[in-house]
Amino acid sequence: MEALLTQPYQMALRTGFKLMETNVLPDQITRRAVRWLVGQRLNSLYKSTGEEQMEELTRFIESLKEMPIAVNTREANEQHYEVPTRFYKLCLGKNLKYSACYFPSEHTSLDEAEDAMLRMYCERAQLEDGQSVVDLGCGWGSLTLFVAERYPNSKITAISNSATQRAYIEEECTNRALENVRVITADINDLEIAEQFDRVVSIEMFEHMKNYQKLLRKISTWLKPQGMLFVHIFTHKEAPYHFEVDSDSDWMAKYFFTGGTMPSDNLLTYFQEDLSIVRHWRVNGKHYARTSEEWLKKFDANIAEIRPILAETYGRTNQTRWTAYWRAFFIAVAELFAINNGEEWLVSHYLFRKKGTSCEAPPASTEGQCH
């Protein structure tokens, strides 16, 4: 981000981040700073003509095809997924869903919003009892456990790069007497599966990927002839970009999304060599903004229990700094997805089918109308 700014702005930005690390800045100032940075990002994303915009997108697509499926997998894992599970129990909803939720009304609670989005996945992925399902990038098993209980005759394979997540999911399966779940811990670059499945579902895992051509080709080999892939991914409506560390003050990329990608809403549709698009939905970004605001509320409400966890994870001398980072992270996500009435950064859903097969698009539903 700093590469986009003049030197005086860079100096002011560094000073601001130093103050932020002390955890004394009022949220109002932090939010104003985030909105200003988001404005700078928007200025960099939009080109002066549609022709230039398309050329930039084409260059980005071609560059992805030259990359590994994922980069910095160890760093991404450590930044989010090896933080103790009890931290997330204090911040997330009852399902430990560490991704955008869906709020049908202003009175919807975080727990209800988790359930609403999980139900939406089941509908849009056309899940049915008795299917074999892969939850790729399963997190703490919010979807895995939801599907395992809702469809008891199905068999779910949860895949994560985190040993911490695997231990939690297996413990939950024992506690809930679920015998239709298995968990695999693997780096997606190296993962090979000989079986084939009815569905592969991936929730906010593709943001950590680069070469979607290779990734979708690999997933296609896991699908039965009539198999389908459902993807939930956060996106910008027009322009993709990488999370890059330009300096120490570029804390979002450095501490939370090393090696990550912000796809555009249409990006995955350019990688259909092995899978064909069946349906494509957009979920307004305000749902993610509200999700993150709810996480921030729970973080603040449970700060007395959270501080020792941060000290244990990052070191006692870094506790204050990481308290500030996590709060700023939740604020940044909320502000980013709320801008322009939630129509700038949003959540994209896709349903793909394996090449050489055909299927009907799922029927529209009231719950699925996300405007």
How would you describe this structure to a colleague?
This is Methyltransferase domain-containing protein. InterPro entries: SAM-dependent_MTases_sf (IPR029063). It holds the Pfam family CMAS. Belongs to the CFA/CMAS family. The chain is of the alpha/beta class. It has a single domain (37-354), classed as 3-Layer(aba) Sandwich (Rossmann fold). Helices cover 44% and strands 16% of the residues. The protein contains 13 helices and nine strands. It has helices at residues 7-21, 27-45, 50-64, 73-81, 85-89, 110-124, 142-150, 163-175, 212-221, 251-255, 286-301, 303-314, 319-338, and strands at 132-136, 155-160, 181-185, 197-203, 223-236, 241-242, 261-262, 275-283, 345-354. The strands form two sheets. Strands 3-2-1-4-5-9-8 form a seven-stranded mixed sheet, sandwiched between helices. Helix 7 links the parallel strand 1 (132-136) and strand 2. It is globular.
List the helices and strands and how they pair.
Blueprint (H helix, E strand, L loop, with lengths): L6 H15 L5 H19 L4 H15 L8 H9 L3 H5 L20 H15 L7 E5 L5 H9 L4 E6 L2 H13 L5 E5 L11 E7 L8 H10 L1 E14 L4 E2 L8 H5 L5 E2 L12 E9 L2 H16 L1 H12 L4 H20 L6 E10 L17
Parallel strand pairs: 1-2, 1-4, 2-3, 4-5
Antiparallel strand pairs: 5-9, 6-7, 8-9
